[in-house]
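Researcher: Here's a chain I'd like modeled. Treat it as a single chain, no partners, no ligands.
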Amino acid sequence: MRSIAMINQKGGVGKTTSAVNISAALAATGQSVCLIDLDPQAHATLHVGASAEQDALSIYDVLVRKASLADACQQLNEHFWVVPSHLDLAAAEVELAGEVGRELILRDRLVEVAGRFDYIIIDCPPSLGILTLNALAAVDEVFLPLQPHFLALHGLSKLLETIDLVSRRLNPKLRLSGVMFCMYDSATRLATEVSRDVDAFFEQARGQQSPWSQTHVFQTRIRRNIRLAEAPSFGQSIFDYSPKSHGAEDYQQFVRELLGGG
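Model: Modeled as a single isolated chain. Structure tokens:
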């Protein structure tokens, strides 16, 4: 089983869009996928059309009320499940303040479903608080979605510092395994320059003793595409909403690259 946290503390970079559509594309290839929405805004939950009703179990119940992760899973199709989020999750940080080992709750819950899924993908909130720490302590891999503009690398050092700290203190298996570019416009010189800078940064890190020494910068670029922005309001992945769009094409190609076929 591969467990992947999608993280960027900067909002609006395509993190949730990527978490949802990578999950959907993997499921379409026959992989068994569980998407965990760890963001109190519940955008991934809404994006896939899952229930976020008060009486439905959510990731809040798993973290705070000790509900089973398996019981909170909602099946979307034959190969795709989601653990929804709820606005209540915003209070989890305060409610877990006095809990011993609060950073490891999700890790312990994932053990319950370890043999059930090929992929677990966690959509993290745009912050480095207790929810994101739970994700980092629970997974083996981090994917970093970046938008190719001037501020793309701003805050990267803080994120790498957090990953390094978690890998040393809580989760020695943790590594930044992938960087992907979203909202990409190949016609701009800036996008090319930022891509080159990111490639150079991670190339320099190769061979060093760090969780990002083997980071793969994905060659598939997720192009800026209005269909990707429209799909969440219909509660559908890009493959259900607009299967012939550039967005669907790009995420399919991304997953081929992820699986080693392109």
